[in-house]
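Glutamine synthetase
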Amino acid sequence: MASLSDLVNLNLSDQTNKIIAEYIWIGGSGMDLRSKARTLSGPVDDPSKLPKWNYDGSSTGQAPGEDSEVILYPQAIFKDPFRRGNNILVMCDSYTPAGEPIPTNNRFAAAKIFSHPDVAAEVPWYGIEQEYTLLKKDVHWPLGWPNGGFPGPQGPYYCGIGADKAFGRDIVDAHYKACLYAGINISGINAEVMPGQWEFQVGPVVGISAGDELWVARYILERITEIAGVVVSFDPKPIPGDWNGAGAHTNYSTKSMRNQGGLEVIKKAIEKLGLKHKEHIVAYGEGNERRLTGKHETADINKFSWGVANRGASVRVGRETEKDGKGYFEDRRPSSNMDPYVVTSMIAETTILWNP
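Tokens:
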């Protein structure tokens, strides 16, 4: 008799050419990922060859009940690390039946910015450092913490090892490998300053793909924590008090910044970001004011600053970039729950297209 595990892990390619495509989209809150699966007649590697699909937008907060149909447009394909074989994950965005992007479709506006000839010519690279916190499912308290109590103060947990310092490494490593399998440009992981908090990095990735890859990496993480019976939180300050918050530091460079003399281009770009500080803060994640306090390796939310190797600044330039006279910079303001479509495109728009 086959076990449930045997059936879940059935290799379909032994019996059929048909594959399963898991369509993924972002729900009405802007952070709730949704997905559903459909059968396709055979392998597909081009999103333009995938059929559009629909869903009930009244159940995701994206359409009224009397006109609830929302259409999914496939945009990016990844290998499915859960079903494996030729099965795929499909990142989609959402439209009305008339073909208009719905109000919560931030990918559409981002794609317009990234397709602008001036932006495309600069080949913008992104590396996003996604921090998150693992919580016990029943009490919503960080993994490894005593229920209702607190561990020892911060210090030994950042990149720490050992059963009394690192909590949830099996989930983190499973996620790392699943992302590599899927074809996501995940470049590393590490335990963070607060116990139970971790980080993964996606990049370098060009343009709109940075958003696609980060969203699918988040999806894979949510699925793995579902299997493990753990909750993942992207709250920018999950525990009040003397504990680090969670961000999504966004590393960025353009072709001009990576070329000789790029440091001057970087300085001009940072100056532009300073002039639009308030607009960026509004778009950089909900609840960010609880994180950007000027403490715990953050800058004050109300003041723009930048510096070389300064983790207490809004924007940090690395020592190597300063020494080489070219490279990249890190925008440290985005929170862990930011929308990467919004943040990446806004940085490109401000630094490349906007002329103050």
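The chain has a mean pLDDT of 97.
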